[in-house]
Specification:
Shape: globular
Order of helices and strands: HHHHHHHHHHHHHHHHHHH
Strand content: under 5%
Distance between the termini: 13 Å
Helix content: over 70%
Radius of gyration: 23 Å
Number of strands: 0
């Protein structure tokens, strides 16, 4: 399969995996609603997932370039020695972490959800002990994903998350009524066993050989372990913020943790599809211009990237806010998930969506810092971001409940964006707000006109069609088409330059791959 074919198939698999993630959430919501029971599952599930998201991603980010270097040198023996040593270290260390977490699960749950008590606390502890071993399978699976990708094998790693979701969906549908939340917990564990197992088949295709000797004193292994620590800090900020949100939400109404998690996952969809793709395209250029010390081109492509993200994300943000109730209702409101739970989730989703642009811009700016080999600034400002969000949460939660947490995150994200950009202005010669501010103003004007057109249309269709799932989907499609047409026309009339650049960069990338 050629590069374009593989890239297309991987994109499709990633999209399918994300859709299956929503199907999984919808099936769980249908069976269990948004209650103290689902809050218990969310805490138990996210404890190992948060650790894996940080450690697994950091390991993969550090190991991939090293493995790829040896593969390009046709020195696979050295690559496999490093990989098998890291696999053994990861297995031994995470097995120890898992055993300690299972033993001290009550204390761990109390730390993450301090307001849990009674049956909810007991259930969370039980589910944590069932799910936590998935940390081992998730982390080793992430490391294998990196190894396979370094060897240009993309299909199985892209399929693995989809398989996890399929296993969980099947278990809830087939056994949810009988085994209830215990069954969901075991299905989650089995799902991540599948995540690892499916990638083991790919190792044979790359000629992988396992070396049993652990080379503890290997300088490269020591270097990898040392490098993982600062990389983990840069990745940890978002996971720490999500854990703090759950800690606050544990003291609110039942189902608050579930509502916040569902809302955040829907909000993250355009980040995973659009912004991640743009970052993938921009980052190699950032690194190239930094290496050449060509700061004018670096500033130019950074400004254009910010403009493209603004062009894409601001209308999505507005659309999500306007369609928050029909969108959340269409995804989740059925079975045990009530209309009141839809309203609570939609409210949090609306305030999360308000911060979409800031989060997207931050993704671009932090990659610029990474390209400049500056991890310190994003890490420090990331923890400032957390502190600001926590302080705002104390103020907003008494006024707005769980929605106050979402709004606190959003305000903190905008402050973090401004801080990062101001520092970047000082470090990059030739970078100026004047390079992309015209695009921001034009897009804001277009989004304002679009919103003025679709807000009354949304209210009219909701009143006309009602709140059943199919009718809500019809409302979303009609409003989405009208909004896209209005926005597209205004953007065309305002002659936003980033449209041309956005199309050209993908054409250039395609021509290079061909």
């Amino acid at each position: 399969m050629n590069i374009l074919g593989a890239a297309f198939l991987v994109t499709i698999l990633n999209f399918v995996s994300r859709i299956l993630g929503f199907v999984r959430d919808a099936v769980i919501a249908n069976r269990f609603g948004a209650t103290g029971v689902t809050d218990a599952y969310m805490i138990a599930y996210n404890l190992p997932y948060a650790l894996e998201a940080v450690l697994g991603m950091a390991l993969a980010s550090v190991v991939i370039p090293i493995v790829m270097g040896y593969v390009l040198q046709n020195n696979k023996r050295r690559a496999w020695e490093l990989v098998t040593t890291m696999l053994q270290i990861v297995f031994v260390s995470l097995t120890a972490v898992t055993l300690l977490s299972v033993i001290f699960a009550p204390q761990l749950v109390h730390l993450m959800a301090p307001s849990f008590s009674g049956e909810t606390l007991a259930l969370t502890v039980k589910l944590t002990r069932i799910i936590f071993p998935s940390l081992i399978f998730m982390s080793i699976g992430m490391l294998l994903t990196g190894v396979l990708n370094a060897n240009k094998h993309f299909i199985l790693p892209a399929f693995a998350p989809a398989l996890t979701n399929i296993i969980i969906i099947g278990a809830v549908i087939c056994f949810g009524a009988s085994f209830k939340m215990n069954g969901l917990a075991f299905a989650t564990l089995i799902g991540y066993v599948g995540f690892l197992a499916v990638q083991l088949f790919g190792l044979k295709n790359i000629g992988f050989k396992f070396y049993s000797k652990i080379r503890w004193n290997d300088p490269e292994i020591i270097g990898i372990i040392v490098a993982v620590f600062p990389m983990s800090l840069t990745i940890a900020v978002n996971q720490i913020l999500l854990m703090i949100n759950r800690m606050f939400a544990s003291g609110l109404a039942e189902g608050s943790i579930t509502s916040l998690d569902y809302a955040n996952r829907v909000m993250q969809l355009p980040m995973g599809i659009f912004v991640a793709s743009i970052v993938t395209i921009l980052f190699p250029s950032f690194a190239e211009f930094v290496k050449k010390q060509d700061w004018l081109k670096f500033a130019d492509i950074l400004s254009q990237g910010l403009g493209v993200v603004t062009l894409l994300i601001l209308p999505i943000s507005a659309g999500f806010m306007i369609l928050s109730v029909p969108l959340i209702g269409a995804l989740y409101e059925r079975g045990a998930f009530s209309s009141l739970q839809t309203l609570a989730t939609a409210s949090a989703f609306m305030y999360f969506s308000l911060g979409l642009w800031a989060i997207a811009v931050n993704m671009i700016i932090t990659r610029a810092f990474y390209a400049m080999q500056n991890l310190k600034t994003p890490v420090i400002l990331g923890f400032v971001y957390i502190i600001i969000s926590v302080c705002l949460s104390f103020i907003l939660i008494p006024l707005m409940g769980s929605s106050g947490l979402a709004l606190a995150n959003t305000i903190a994200a905008y402050i973090n964006m401004l801080q990062l950009f101001i520092i970047l202005l000082q470090k990059v010669p030739g970078l100026s707000v004047r390079k992309f501010l015209p695009t921001v103003f034009k897009v804001l004007l277009a989004v304002t006109i679009m919103s003025a057109a679709i807000i009354p249309l949304t209210f009219y269709l909701e009143k006309l069609l009602g709140s059943a799932t199919l009718q809500r989907l019809i409302t979303i499609v009609i409003v989405g088409i009208v909004g896209l047409l209005v926005y597209g026309i205004i953007i065309y009339l305002l002659k936003v330059e980033e449209i041309k650049w956005f199309l050209n960069i993908f054409k250039q990338r395609k021509s290079k791959n061909v």
